[in-house]
Amino acid sequence: MCQVNTDPMSSNTGFLEVVVPPDILDDSTSTDMEVREGSNVTLRCAATGTPKPKVMWRREVGGTITQANSHEVGQGSVLKLTRVTRAHMGPYLCIASNGVPPAVSKRIVLNVYFQPMVWIENQLVGAYEGQTLVLECHSEAYPTAITYWTRPSNETITNDNYKVETIPKGYEITMKLTIKSVQPQDFGSYRCVARNSLGEMDGKIKLYRIDRSPTMRRPSTRRDSKKSWKMDHNHERNTTGMKDEPMTKMIENEDEQIDFQSATASSLFHCHLLANLGITTITAILAGGMST
């Protein structure tokens, strides 16, 4: 209170409020958690400050938090998640603010345990001998699964003719098996297996034999044969960087000569035919006149 000794006395009263930025109490706040899929989870975030901080929850990746019934949650010092699934897995942020900067946050990681699952897009694959082929299957598991492939003989694949790759992405794994050159013993059923501490799952891909498709048709005529040879010959000459103009012109001239000879032979045939018809007609007329 401020007072001035006048007549009459004058005074003024003021109030002082001390503000304190927010702070999160680690002892009363949840730490990283690991639970089984289908469990209920409660996350707590205790904060102090003046004025009293407001607490909200956000996912580090994905923003707002929704329950299975699409109900949005995330306000208050307690976050309850019912029947969690692998989709709930990841880091959560507890953010406390009271209008006094700076706002503070704490990161809490939720891990959801579940047994492996395996799915395959193409369970039936055809290939011919000598082909390079890639078989692929997908797995989800947490803790991270141990993955491997088995051959049609049920042996774990370690041969040099195969290449095994695993591509992890979070709790998902893409498994690839490359057969460098398909051999007769490679046809049959392959298994991709995923195993962790909660269980094991596998998927099967059947590899069957197909015939190699023909790369070119057989020429039906001499001209087709020459054209096919000319195309192959030009390709070889172009590949080696050699000019092929004289040879091409000679082949084209030969084709023109063949066409000319064919046309000439056809014309001569028609002339002989017409001449024979004319002789036959004249003979018939003369025979008729003599009979009269």
UniProtKB/TrEMBL annotation:
It is found in: Cell membrane. Residues 215-243 are annotated as: Disordered. The lineage of its organism: Eukaryota, Metazoa, Ecdysozoa, Arthropoda, Hexapoda. Residues 22-105, 116-208 form the Ig-like domain. PANTHER family: CTX-RELATED TYPE I TRANSMEMBRANE PROTEIN, DPR-INTERACTING PROTEIN THETA. This is Lachesin. Residues 221-243 have a biased composition (Basic and acidic residues). Its main location: membrane. Keywords: Cell membrane, Disulfide bond, Glycoprotein, Immunoglobulin domain, Membrane, Repeat, Signal. InterPro entries: Ig-like_dom, Ig-like_dom_sf, Ig-like_fold, Ig_sub, Ig_sub2, Neural/epithelial_adhesion. It comes from the Eukaryota.
